[in-house]
Amino acid sequence: MRAAVLGLGEAGRRYAGDLAAAGVAVTGYDVRTMEPPSGVRLAASIPEAVEGADLVLSLTTAAGSLDAAQAASGHVATSAVFADLNAASPARKVAVARELATGLFADVAVLAPVTRQGLRTPVLAAGPGATAFANLLRPLRAQVEIVPGEPGAAASRKLLRSVFMKSLATTILESLAAARAAGCEQWVRAQIAGELGERGEALVDRLVDGTHQHAGRRRHEMEDTRVYLEELGTPTDMTSAAIRWLGSIHAGRRS
After folding, report:
1. What percent of the chain has pLDDT over 90?
2. How far separated are the first and last CA of the chain, in Å rounded?
3. Global pTM value
4. Is the pLDDT of residue 249 over 90?
5. What is the pLDDT of residues 57-88, one digit of tens each?
């Protein structure tokens, strides 16, 4: 198999490196000048990167996903899978799919930080290329769940899940901030961890650390989530509160 990875940020580098380690011929592309992961060839352009690839993974960020699809359009083989793994709104996934003149589009939603499990990170896949995407990556031990529906179906489920996950994270942060001020942070932290089950302590650590590290990106994701909930006609109170918390953390106003 030959694969192209568009965007060699934190997630893209891990995917590219894991694919190369699994014996896949990988070509990477990023707008920045950088050293590629071990075993990955660096292309000078998106058309060069996707030429001849059986699988294209787009990890450019949501803001750059449409431009990446436009640049790849016409250069992706008809039988190839173009998988958009960016955390984006359902509408953006639909727009990206429409840009592709060739290839099988897969809307892929990543459900956990890629840095922890790499290629084995659980994902959802929807759209005409979902089954082909799963068939290419499952032999490499990727955890792919196919969901019914057109492009945007996987993204919508991720956003609905984010209402809970990001709200949980910011609720924990607010509780710990108050407990810190009251002088009983460790006790409250232990209480929260106990309610979350046998892996509660690790989950609290992951939510707290991950929220601080990725506050800006998660705020944008929750803004997309709020738009989606408004389209559904459902309440956005917790989502809006999470956006405010994430924005404050990103701006350095909260720790």
Report:
1. 92
2. 45
3. 0.90
4. yes
5. 999 998 899 999 999 999 999 999 999 999 99
User: Residue 32 corresponds to which tokens in the numbers above?
Assistant: 């920045």
CATH architecture of the domain with residue range 155-250: Orthogonal Bundle (1.10)
In DSSP terms, which residues pair with 82 in a beta bridge? 56, 105
User: Quick one: which of 242, 163, 165, 254 has its CA closest to 203?
Assistant: 165
For every residue of the chain, which 3-state class applies, written as one string? CEEEEECCCHHHHHHHHHHHHCCCEEEEECCCCCCCCCCEEECCCHHHHHCCCCEEEECCCHHHHHHHHHHHCCCCCCCCEEEECCCCCHHHHHHHHHHCCCCEEEEEEECCCHHHHHHHCCEEEECCCHHHHHHHHHHHCCCEEECCCCCCHHHHHHHHHHHHHHHHHHHHHHHHHHHHHHCCHHHHHHHHHHHCCCCHHHHHHHHHHHHHHCHHHHHHHHHHHHHHHHHHCCCCHHHHHHHHHHHHHHCCCCC
Q: Which tokens belong to 255?
A: 């720790």
The domain limits of the chain are 2-149, 155-250
Say whether domain 2-149 belongs to CATH 3.40.50.720: yes
Find the length of the chain: 255
Given its phi and psi angles, is residue 163 left (phi above 0), alpha (psi -120 to 50 degrees) or beta? alpha
